[in-house]
Design a protein that fits this description.
The complex is a heterodimer of chains A (111) and B (114).
Chain A: E1 4-6, E2 9-13, E3 18-23, E4 30-36, E5 43-49, E6 55-57, E7 60-65, E8 70-75, E9 84-91, E10 100-101, E11 105-110
Chain B: E1 4-7, E2 10-13, E3 19-25, E4 31-38, E5 42-51, E6 54-57, E7 64-66, E8 76-78, E9 87-97, E10 100-105, E11 109-113
Parallel strand pairs in B: 2-11
Antiparallel strand pairs in B: 1-3, 3-8, 4-5, 4-9, 5-6, 7-8, 9-10, 9-11
Classes of the chains: A mainly beta (111), B mainly beta (114).
Chain lengths: 111, 114
């Protein structure tokens, strides 16, 4: 079953913050975050593992709440380059290559 | 530094025609997979392989075949194309380490079935 992402879309001005959520009804081992620009392939951002720490990549960070089976992606002081569609992918086991992806959150950052 | 290479990038097929989407990776990854991406539905797994000679079905396998004769190549075959198979197809490869498994996607193949 695919994880549920919210919101579906968000519009920001440069410098504003945003939070994207990813929720699953199943017990998760890992949550993966990807960003996809229009007409391009999804690009890996970060992985969060059960029992692991919050991760960060420049001004983009993420957390994983194992009890709630929920992950949040934080876009801080957004830049124009942050525009794109963000996908979360969830894995159920440590050796699970198969991910289920959410429908995506489209982020538009305007000057 | 090619990574995951897919061909063709664009293809138009007539209903009932067959074709093969090619995928090759040069990273020696064990795991390869095919996803389709449709508006509002994210990425859905079609077929995957955990190594040469081993393939299995994903969420939406009907109408597609795969084979994995080498570590590098993982072609996707559409047996008899239908308009419902109009989509963007992504091939991916990944490996497992202590950080988890990172998936690397190809650039996508845009397929239209008329």
């Amino acid at each position: 079953q695919q994880p549920v992402q919210s919101p579906q879309a968000v519009i920001l001005r440069e410098g504003e913050d945003a939070v994207i959520n990813c929720s699953s009804s199943k017990a998760l081992y890992s949550v993966h975050w990807y960003r996809q620009k229009h007409g391009e392939a999804p690009v890996f951002l970060m992985i969060l593992l059960k029992g692991g720490e919050q991760k960060g990549h420049e001004k983009i960070s993420a957390s994983f709440n194992e009890k709630k089976q929920q992950s949040s992606l934080y876009l801080t002081a957004s830049q124009l380059s942050y525009s794109g569609t963000y996908f979360c992918g969830t894995g159920l086991r440590s050796n699970d290559y198969k991910l289920s992806f959410g429908a995506g959150t489209t982020v538009t950052v305007r000057a | 530094n090619a990574g995951v290479t897919q061909t063709p990038k664009f293809q138009v097929l007539k209903t009932g025609q067959s074709m093969t989407l090619q995928c090759a990776q040069d990273m020696n990854h064990e795991y390869m997979s095919w996803y389709r991406q449709d508006p509002g539905m994210g990425l859905r797994l079609i077929h995957y392989s955990v190594g040469a000679g081993i393939t299995d079905q994903g969420e939406v396998p009907n109408g597609y075949n795969v084979s994995r004769s080498t570590t590098e190549d993982f072609p996707l075959r559409l047996l008899s194309a239908a308009p419902s198979q109009t989509s963007v197809y992504f091939c991916a490869s990944s490996f497992q380490d202590t950080s988890g498994n990172t998936i690397y996607f190809g650039e996508g193949s845009w397929l239209t079935v008329v």
